[in-house]
Design a protein that fits this description.
Layout: H1 4-18, H2 27-36, H3 43-53, H4 57-67, H5 78-95, E1 98-102, H6 109-120, E2 130-136, H7 139-147, E3 149-151, H8 152-155, H9 160-166, E4 167-168, E5 175-178, H10 180-183, E6 186-190, E7 204-208, H11 218-231, E8 232-239, E9 253-257, E10 260-263, H12 271-283
Parallel strand pairs: 1-2, 1-7, 2-6, 7-8
Antiparallel strand pairs: 3-5, 4-5, 8-10, 9-10
Helix pairs in contact: 1-3, 3-4, 5-6
Bound molecules: S-adenosylmethionine.
């Protein structure tokens, strides 16, 4: 069992390193993940916290593993991929190219699904003029994504047609490798959304930021959404999980339903802000 002091330190560190808000209900999860990752609740946990607090990169990576969940899948919420691919095709037709970003790409299933959805809508043999940037804070997840090899379990959500078209089975090892035409459309890069430097330029046509915002502390969540809004082209799409919403950053977007939001050309008025401004005007 973790002590209250250990949990408090972990809470502060998760916020500092990743903008993640650990709540009391996350305590059992922290303990079970710690056991799975070989970090016992006693001195092991203290040693990990000591090192991670001092900026040790290996300890930092392990700690990030401890406080994040990598659950993902191919074509999770299939409709999102149809909408994103159609939008990308519109951008290609209008401007000759599309730029998409999967901002919490985990082990790669999401950006690869996006690439497959775009390829399926293009002429066979053509190279779609779409570039997909896929980023995540978790170095280990990105290694899996970059390798592009998946087991039968991961491919279970794909139909036979997509398996045959987009995967080959290397050396009969029960592992399936993503095809070069999908792989070359996706660039993987580490990026901490709570960090200052995103090294990322707009305008982007589509941003997937699914199943991450719900873990972020309110201030970080707002900052991430505001930065995404500034990178999206007017009319560009932000896609989150249908169970997530945009909290106080909603004025940058209009809802298109089911977790899909369209970047407004001009941010909508925030009722609270407008009232404060009017009250100030009255005082002056
Ligand atoms: C549940 S997965 C979501 C995967 C995919 N977007 C999906 O919906 O299927 C959440 C991902 O967010 C990543 N993550 C957590 N905090 C992050 C941060 N501060 N910056 C970037 N990625 C982060 C985790 O490493 C994890 O891979």
């Amino acid at each position: 069992m973790l002590t209250d002091q250990q949990v408090d330190r972990a809470r502060r560190l998760a916020l500092t390193l990743a903008g993640i808000e650990l709540l009391d209900r996350h305590r059992p999860l922290l303990e079970s993940r710690g056991r799975r990752l070989g970090v016992g609740a006693g001195a092991d946990f203290d040693a990990l916290l000591d090192l991670a607090e001092r900026g040790d990169p290996g300890a930092g990576r392990l700690f990030i593993r401890l406080v994040t969940t990598q659950f993902t899948g191919f074509f999770r919420h299939p409709r999102h991929f149809e909408i994103a691919a159609e939008h990308a095709l519109g951008a290609i037709a209008a401007r000759g190219g599309a730029r998409l970003w999967s901002a919490a790409a985990s082990t790669g299933e999401e950006p690869y699904s996006l690439a497959m959805a775009i390829i399926e809508r293009c002429d066979p043999g053509s190279r779609p003029a779409a570039a997909i940037l896929a980023t995540d804070i978790d170095a280990e997840a990105l290694e899996v994504a970059t390798r592009g090899e998946y087991g039968d379990g991961a491919l279970a959500s794909l139909g036979q047609g997509r398996r045959e078209r987009f995967f080959s089975e290397p050396a009969g090892a029960g592992r399936w490798r993503i095809s070069p035409e999908v792989r070359r459309m996706v660039e993987f890069r580490p990026l901490n959304l709570a960090g200052v430097d995103w090294s990322l330029e707009g305008p982007l046509d589509v941003v997937f930021c699914r199943n991450l915002l719900m873990y972020l502390e309110t201030g970080h969540r707002y900052a991430v959404l505001e930065r995404i809004a500034s990178l999206l082209a007017p009319g560009g799409l932000l896609i989150v999980d249908p169970a997530e919403h945009l909290w106080k950053a909603g004025h940058w977007f209009e809802s298109a339903g089911d977790g899909v939001y369209r970047r407004r050309r001009v941010a909508a008025d925030i009722p609270g802000r407008k009232q404060a401004w009017m009250a100030q005007g009255r005082k002056g």
